[in-house]
Amino acid sequence: MDEKWTIVAVVGTRPQIIKCAAMQEDLRGNASRVDRLVLLDTGQHYDPELAALPRTDLGVDVDVVPRSGGSGGDPTVEEVHDAVVTRSAASGGPRAVLVMGDTRSTLLGARAAVRAGLPLVYAEAGLGSRTPGHRESEIRRAVVKHADVLVCWSESAAAGLHVARPGAPVLVFDDPHLGFVRRQVAMAGPAAGVPTPGVRDAPAVLTLHKSWTLRPEVVTAVFEALAEQRQRAVLLLTPQLRRLLETMGPVPGHVEPRDGRTPRETWRLVAAAPFLVTDSGTMPREAAILGRRSVLVRAFSGNGDLIDRGIAVVAGTDSAGIAAAIARVRRAGPFDLPYRATGWHEILDRALDVLRETRPPNAEPASGRRSID
């Protein structure tokens, strides 16, 4: 009989916590070798109220990493390590740590796993941008070097991982979070007060929350680009964006600010809009599974042109470039994302198969080291 595992997922940002909803839902509803899922929150998200929304809206059950110095700032590697070991030890069975993405919490979880000598599964793995000094890409490359199993959502990401870690186990699946988003929107029905999808003059959805993007010159460039294209937009406010707008004067009439929404409400708005303008790396994929294209405003151009995935990437603060991208996605219309429904139970069971084959109990980490620089 297969052993039952405990998986400790270390997360910290709001998107990561949202993605855990799909993981919890899937493991509760399907037979799996994962007997226990522990979600550890490092508290990385800058706004506790926003970070709490996925828990109340989607029912995500997350434990917060205890800190000796109280709240504020990231926990230490030692604190995350102690939480991982303590929360997972009760089961008595085999254990593994799961991290995802390219955040500070990703690196903290990976460092804690390596220090504890526990197997490390890296989901959403990929090398990211080659732009020098790009912090998220540096995190990705550090974790890729030490993970026992690499899980990614595209063949192109897998190709890069095979080059970076020859011989390392790389698994390719369709992103299970996207199927979860589509199910949530289907269950909720259309968003109240939003025009029927496909109406040309419907407002786009605009979200800006990255530290690089939350500058007057970037926000102004986006507003000007929308005005040039005579495109109305619903602007979803965060506390940081609200404070910035207060210093910039009146919001132009073609942009309608609204308080930040729960994950479900945001997805419903995107599904009913002609397209999305955002600085988020996650939201364009959510929009794509809902049949909508996106304009992705970035500080760098390392991702190249992703229009074949429904995304027009714009680097910098050039309002003309943003306007051209808006015109491009609006012209292209709805987007049909090729997708095979995938569950976390499939992904984790396959990862555990690989661990059983490649890393016996009590074996040293894949890198042969107990620390990550």
UniProtKB/TrEMBL annotation:
Domain of life: Bacteria
PANTHER family membership: UDP-N-ACETYLGLUCOSAMINE 2-EPIMERASE (PTHR43174:SF1)
Coiled coil: none
Family assignment from sequence similarity: Belongs to the UDP-N-acetylglucosamine 2-epimerase family.
Presence of keyword Isomerase: yes
Gene Ontology molecular functions: isomerase activity
Annotated keywords: Isomerase
Native organism taxonomy: Bacteria, Bacillati, Actinomycetota, Actinomycetes, Streptosporangiales
InterPro entries tied to this protein: UDP_GlcNAc_Epimerase_2_dom, WecB-like
Listed name of the protein: UDP-GlcNAc3NAcA epimerase
Domain UDP-N-acetylglucosamine 2-epimerase: from-to ranges: 37-330
